[in-house]
């Protein structure tokens, strides 16, 4: 059973395994640095639907369905699904997954939702509440632009610190029996607010939260950055990644050799004009499922910390003059 280490930090002794995983992305993501690693690339941003919101729901359904097929099981074998997205009331998840008729927990952690879902799913699996569970999330460039920034037809100019919301989804199927990759620990993030209120500079807002979570986990477990093949964040982007390394170096923690960021990896920022990189719930989820989990499966890596970051704001809170509260959740992945 999971063991308490310190506030928000726990370890799990060999009871939660990753049975399968799947990644589905849009055409721009497929043209990026990691295009060859994703399971499916959908060229039509509408995915055959009449709206972008409906398209995002289909991305999520496709990721879950593919993960189930890859495990050679049926949806009836899944006990619980944890899912969330960026659309108001998480309708990307609820409308996308309603036809599956699987017990459902809707969650919201902004772009940290994938790590939050993995933490909840792993603890449910570890405590025998579920034999199999799924963590999944999604985002879509056009749904996010419409909700958080400007309608696409407005033609607003993006600032240099802005990131590009990914059209993508990733799903991870956890099991108490099958799989060689294990979830062996985690750290539940604390809400962190450094007073940043620029919606186009999310990386700067989220970097302190990521630094705090990483420091807490390393200190609680008595480990060092050198103990891990990769310390993966998502999605700090170029600016946020630099700040993260600087923050931790001030605490005498140097992750510069191990650090990778999903937002920096997914696009070629210069050729694709994505400025500071990718963002959105689907960014870290698809990069985890398409790029890092296969590394563990084929023994290219053995030990990974996955830290998904999120900005816990809304357009209304910013209009009211609020700053941006942020959070970062950590999941420890290992291949023995």
What does this entry show, briefly?
This protein has about 325 residues and is an alpha/beta fold. Helices cover about 35% and strands about 25% of the residues.
Could you explain the architecture of this structure?
With 336 residues, this protein is of the alpha/beta class. The chain folds into two domains: 3-175, Stage V sporulation protein AD (Peroxisomal Thiolase, Chain A, domain 1, 3-Layer(aba) Sandwich); 183-335, Stage V sporulation protein AD (Peroxisomal Thiolase, Chain A, domain 1). The protein has helices spanning 27-30, 52-70, 91-97, 113-126, 141-148, 202-221, 237-249, 262-266, 281-297, 315-319; strands spanning 3-6, 9-11, 17-26, 40-42, 80-84, 104-106, 132-139, 164-165, 168-175, 181-187, 230-234, 259-261, 278-279, 303-311, 326-335. Helix 6 (202-221) crosses helix 7 (237-249). The relative contact order is 0.19.
What is the gyration radius calculated from CA atoms?
18 Å
Q: Count the strands?
A: 15
Shape: globular
CATH superfamily of the largest domain: Stage V sporulation protein AD
CATH topology of the largest domain: Peroxisomal Thiolase, Chain A, domain 1
Oligomer: single chain
What is the number of domains? 2
Give the class from helix and strand content and strand pairing. alpha/beta
Largest sheet at a glance?
A: 13 strands, mixed
| Uncertain stretches of 5 or more adjacent residues | none
Q: Any guess at the CATH architecture of the largest domain?
A: 3-Layer(aba) Sandwich
* Helical run tally: 10
| Proportion in β-strands | 15-25%
Distance between the termini: 19 Å
Average pLDDT, to the nearest integer?
93
- The portion of residues assigned to helices is 25-40%
């Amino acid at each position: 059973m999971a063991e308490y280490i310190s506030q928000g930090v726990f370890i799990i002794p060999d009871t939660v395994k990753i049975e399968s995983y799947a990644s589905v992305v849009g055409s721009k993501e497929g043209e990026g640095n990691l295009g060859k690693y994703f399971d499916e690339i959908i060229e039509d941003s509408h995915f055959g639907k009449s709206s972008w919101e409906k398209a995002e729901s289909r991305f999520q359904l496709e990721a879950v369905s593919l993960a189930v097929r890859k495990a050679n099981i049926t949806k009836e074998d899944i006990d619980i699904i944890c899912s969330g997205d960026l659309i108001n009331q998480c309708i990307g998840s609820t409308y996308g997954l309603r036809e599956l008729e699987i017990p459902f927990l809707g969650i919201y952690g902004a772009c940290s939702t994938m790590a939050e879902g993995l933490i909840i799913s792993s603890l449910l699996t570890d405590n025998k509440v579920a034999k199999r569970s799924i963590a999944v999330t999604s985002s879509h460039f056009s749904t996010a632009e419409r909700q958080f920034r400007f309608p696409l037809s407005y033609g607003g100019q993006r600032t240099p610190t802005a990131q590009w919301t990914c059209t993508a989804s990733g799903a991870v199927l956890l099991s108490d029996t099958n799989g060689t990759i294990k979830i062996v620990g985690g750290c539940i993030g604390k809400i962190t607010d450094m007073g940043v209120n620029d919606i186009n500079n999310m990386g700067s807002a989220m970097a302190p939260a990521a630094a705090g979570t990483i420091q807490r986990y390393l200190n609680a477990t008595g480990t060092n950055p050198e103990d891990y093949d990769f310390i993966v964040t998502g999605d700090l982007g170029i600016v946020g990644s630099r700040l993260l390394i600087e923050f931790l170096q001030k605490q005498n923690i140097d992750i510069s050799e191990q650090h990778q960021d999903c937002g920096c990896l997914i696009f070629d920022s210069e050729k694709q004009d994505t400025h500071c990189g990718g963002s959105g719930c689907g960014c870290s989820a698809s990069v985890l499922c398409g790029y890092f989990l296969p590394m563990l499966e084929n023994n290219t890596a053995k030990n990974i910390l996955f830290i998904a970051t999120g900005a816990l704001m809304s357009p209304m809170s910013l209009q009211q003059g609020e700053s941006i509260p942020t959070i970062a959740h950590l999941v420890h992945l290992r291949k023995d």
